[in-house]
Amino acid sequence: MTAVALAVTAVAALVHVYVFVLESFRWTGPRAARVFGLDAATARTTAPLAFNQGFYNLFLAVEVVAGALALAAGHRTAGAVLVLAGTLSMTGAGLVLVASDRSKARAALVQAGPALLGAVLLAIAL
User: Fold this and answer.
1) Global confidence as pTM
2) Which residue from 41, 38, 45 is spatially nearest to 22, judged by alpha carbons?
3) How confident is the model at residue 1, as a pLDDT?
4) Which of 13, 94, 112, 117 is the most exposed place for a label (fewest CB within 10 A)?
5) Contact 47, 21 (CB under 8 A)
6) Whole-angstrom Cα distance, residue 2 to residue 116?
């Protein structure tokens, strides 16, 4: 069960790494415009904010990966704490996204769904 939980949390981490790349390095490009519904002027204006936000997503992914590595190395408590802190933070961010703009429900589900599922599976496995 732990392996399944970590596989699901890896998906959550990959989603956040992808969003990091979009927000921090591709914000003014066509892919980010499609994903985030941006026009060129808004993208240029908000690029510094998106750059910073992208790194938050990266740090959450790093936290989950570090926890998974710690679990794999036999550090059960430290690993679980890192994975759960990262995935539950991802879940919280998804909830804030949908609470702030209901039209972002799909994006919030992509952001929070795998993270919450992975956290629940890990809690059951422990």
Assistant:
1) 0.89
2) 38
3) 86
4) 117
5) no
6) 15
